[in-house]
Write a structure and sequence with these properties.
Length: about 210
């Protein structure tokens, strides 16, 4: 029997509206923003040593107004004994958005957040700024041990990737910062290889190289 996600039917209509906004947007790359710092999405994980509760704070820096966002994240490898409990928007920059949708795929350990500021013609877009847009809550079974991992962005079918959309329906592909998104499972990550170190150095110097061209 083919597995059908229990939230698939309930989220189909709202994600269809979100996809319409995303697909109809033209492209712009924030990483090449010549007017200032690149638009950025970042995750900071808060995890106390003796607690089995974890909170991931998702923040956005944007130097232009935003009308919509898709925020897909992976929180394990499909085998990590960690459960995503809920996603909250209260007391964040998106608290008063008209559409706030979330899909939690417990099999692939992926969450997909879809946000549209205005569906009624009465709400303004998200202003320029920097701050929290969502909070993701997790529970780790007591006594469970697994390899530490960093939450990361991902791609979710059919065409959901990390993306912002401006009121002019221009798409922006933001930079992503997960340097503080480590979830600890008690088994430390192995030290990076020389190849991985070189790759990280290239990533870090990428914007500077672009700026010199």
């Amino acid at each position: 029997m083919r597995f059908k996600h229990p939230l698939a039917g309930a989220t189909l209509a709202v994600f269809a509206s979100l996809l319409y906004v995303i697909f109809c947007s033209s492209s712009s790359f924030a990483q090449r923003d010549s007017f200032g710092k690149p638009d950025t999405c970042r995750i900071i994980v808060f995890q106390e040593e003796n607690s089995n509760q974890v909170m991931a704070s998702v923040s956005v820096f944007n130097d232009e107004e935003l009308a919509a966002m898709t925020l897909p994240f992976r929180y394990g490898d499909g085998k990590s004994p960690i459960k995503c409990d809920s996603i909250k928007f209260w007391d964040t920059r998106t608290m008063f958005f008209d559409m706030k949708t979330e899909l939690i795929d417990t099999v692939r350990q992926v969450v997909l957040i879809g946000l549209i500021a205005d569906m009624s013609g009465q709400r303004p877009p998200m202003k320029k700024g920097d701050g929290e847009v969502a909070k993701i809550y997790f529970t780790i079974p007591k006594g469970a041990k697994f390899q530490d991992f960093y939450m990361d962005t991902t791609w979710v079918r059919p065409m959901n990737l990390l993306k912002f959309v401006t009121p002019e329906v221009k798409s922006v592909y933001p930079a992503f910062d997960n340097s503080k998104a480590l979830i600890r499972g008690g088994i430390p990550l192995p030290p990076p290889t020389e190849k991985q170190k070189e790759s990280e150095r290239e990533k870090a110097s990428g914007p500077e190289k672009e700026g010199k061209n």
